[in-house]
Amino acid sequence: PAPEFKAFHSLALSLPCGFHTLHLEVGMRCFPLHMVLQYIDHGVLHLTEKYILNLWKELDNTEQNVKLKLSILTRLPQAIGCKVCQLWNHSLSTHVMAKNYVKVLFEKLGSKQNKKRIGEGGRESLSTIRNSNQCHQEGE
């Protein structure tokens, strides 16, 4: 845990509900963006779904805000990132959603082909066994 939270953890206290969201909001208002991103990367600030969804609704798609959104989007867990992409009406989010969809399709296709190969491999080995048994019986 981050040094700020060690007192809570050493006393076995849980953080109050909404603490990480409030902590992130104060950090975003008080620190320059590069520091906030560094704190997120080092686990001092935690990206919460509530804060991110509110931030996406508040910010428009100006060039500066798009850069901010992208820098945050790359740090989000995949589940929250998918929700955010669905809310964000921007070509980049459409691109990310399409890329993820194609990835899922290829994974499904790959798993179907692997199952088919395994099935075919099983049939081949059975037919090979049958043929070898027939040859073995004919030779006797």
From TrEMBL:
Region (Disordered) residue spans: 116-140
Annotated Gene Ontology cellular component terms: trans-Golgi network
Domain annotation Gamma-secretase-activating protein C-terminal: ranges: 6-70
Xref: Pfam families: GSAP-16
Residue spans of biased composition, Polar residues class: 125-140
InterPro entries in alphabetical order: GSAP_C_dom, GSAP_fam
Source domain of life: Eukaryota
GO biological process: positive regulation of amyloid-beta formation
Annotated protein name in UniProt: Gamma-secretase-activating protein C-terminal domain-containing protein
Organism expressing this protein natively: Pseudonaja textilis
